[in-house]
């Protein structure tokens, strides 16, 4: 509670009038050293307002007092970023001017490209392909040797530039695995037979008679893209059905779902969204992950 101030009998100092269960607060003055520091801080803050950018002001539009020093941390950061960008541009000009194969033969330029490609991959590609490019169901693993559209440097570069089934790009990679049951082309039994035949490529069929029936249907409908031996075709983005690498899953139920209802994954075209040098860096980085193919003589 608060009472009228009075003098403390023991110290002779006037109290503040505050009382907590008989405990009173003495109204001692603040130490002079503390007051001097406090006043100095006030003075320095006023000098700071004058010297450095400070208060927002309305001058036809919102701006701020620039300060007599003309210092701007934003301008300083912008200057530093411009210096970094200028240093990078030296390499970017070379990357834009040289072919992918020429960049590979230049150790310094290749090192810069791989570092830049790794950074661009983390910013743009990792959300779908994973930070380690390991992929997920529906998003291919970029570390292995299976490539839907080809794994040479030029193939990867083309895929990056134009995307897959990206409607806004006239040169996009385009093919379609249609749904043979959904579209009424095959019956459920015929789809099951085809699935058995596809499983037979890796010795996993559990109904030999169905696999034999499925072979006929496969030859009539599926071999145009996947080839008669099921090894696929890069030109059409048709996967190899004989290996153990499956984009959506290689168990019987998932293969049935693929044949019955189709697949049509989309990858964006990065041309126009990333500059040419960055796309080249990405192509070199992805190719370096371990599964990149070499051009055949």
UniProtKB/TrEMBL annotation:
Residues 112-202, 209-290 form the Cytochrome c domain. Binds 2 heme C groups per subunit. Component of the cbb3-type cytochrome c oxidase. The keyword Metal-binding applies. It comes from Iodidimonas gelatinilytica. This is Cbb3-type cytochrome c oxidase subunit. It is found in: Cell inner membrane. GO terms for molecular function: electron transfer activity; heme binding; iron ion binding; oxidoreductase activity. Its cofactor is heme c. Heme c 1 binds at residues 125, 128-129, 267. The chain crosses the membrane at residues 33-52. C-type cytochrome. Part of the cbb3-type cytochrome c oxidase complex. Pathway: Energy metabolism; oxidative phosphorylation. Keywords: Cell inner membrane, Cell membrane, Electron transport, Heme, Hydrogen ion transport, Ion transport, Iron, Membrane, Metal-binding, Oxidoreductase, Repeat, Respiratory chain, Transmembrane, Transmembrane helix, Transport. Heme c 2 binds at residues 177, 222, 225-226. Its main location: membrane. InterPro entries: CcoP_N (IPR032858), CcoP_N_sf (IPR038414), Cyt_c-like_dom (IPR009056), Cyt_c-like_dom_sf (IPR036909), Cyt_C_IC (IPR008168), Cyt_c_oxidase_cbb3_su3 (IPR004678), Cytochrome_c_Oxidase_Subunit (IPR050597). Gene3D superfamilies: 6.10.280.130, Cytochrome c-like domain. One of its GO terms (cellular component) is plasma membrane. Pfam families: Cytochrom_C, Cytochrome_CBB3, FixP_N. PANTHER family: CBB3-TYPE CYTOCHROME C OXIDASE SUBUNIT FIXP (PTHR33751:SF1).
């Amino acid at each position: 509670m608060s009472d009228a101030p009075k003098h403390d009998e023991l110290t002779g100092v006037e109290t503040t009038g505050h009382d907590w269960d008989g405990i009173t607060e003495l109204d001692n003055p603040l130490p002079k050293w503390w007051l001097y520091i406090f006043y100095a801080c006030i003075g320095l803050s006023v000098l700071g307002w004058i010297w450095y950018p400070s208060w927002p002001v309305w001058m036809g539009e919102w701006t701020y007092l620039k300060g007599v020093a003309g210092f701007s941390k934003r301008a300083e950061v912008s200057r530093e970023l411009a210096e970094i960008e200028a240093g990078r541009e030296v390499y970017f000009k070379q990357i834009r001017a040289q072919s992918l194969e020429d960049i590979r033969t230049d150790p310094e330029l290749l090192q810069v490209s791989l570092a830049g490609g790794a950074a661009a991959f983390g910013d743009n590609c990792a959300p779908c392909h994973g930070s380690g490019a390991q992929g997920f169901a529906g998003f291919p693993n970029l570390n292995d040797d299976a490539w839907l559209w080809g794994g040479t440097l030029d193939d990867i570069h083309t895929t990056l530039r134009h995307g897959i089934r990206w409607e806004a790009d006239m040169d996009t990679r385009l093919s379609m695995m249609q749904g043979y049951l959904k579209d009424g082309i095959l019956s459920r039994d015929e789809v099951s037979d085809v699935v058995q035949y596809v499983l037979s490529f890796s010795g996993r069929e559990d109904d030999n008679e169905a696999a034999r029936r499925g072979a006929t249907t496969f030859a009539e409908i599926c071999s145009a893209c996947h080839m008669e031996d099921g090894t696929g075709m890069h030109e059409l983005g048709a996967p190899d059905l004989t290996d153990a690498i499956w984009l959506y899953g290689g168990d019987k139920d998932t293969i049935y779902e693929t044949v019955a209802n189709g697949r049509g994954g989309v990858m964006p075209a990065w041309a126009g969204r990333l500059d040419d040098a960055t796309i080249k860096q990405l192509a070199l980085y992805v190719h370096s992950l371990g599964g990149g193919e070499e051009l055949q003589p």
